[in-house]
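Reviewers of the previous submission asked for a worked example of the structure-prediction workflow described in the proposal, so we include one complete record here. The input consisted solely of the amino acid sequence. No template or homolog information was supplied to the procedure at any stage.
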Amino acid sequence: MVLSEAVDQHGEAAVYEIDTTEREPSEVADEIRAVRTGDREPQAGIVDFTGYLVG
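From that input alone, the workflow returned the following structure tokens.
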């Protein structure tokens, strides 16, 4: 729900979804840095939450 609201409000070109599943904090920080420096393209809808929902 949050992703769809972000895309609705800001547009897909402004949403940077980052999958943090089983990743080290330093890896996530590197991805965030890449977003901030423009080295990463916007991406939305790349994280699959169905496993979490099914349980």
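Residues 32 and 43 are 13 Å apart (CA to CA). We consider this example representative of the routine output the project will generate in years two and three.
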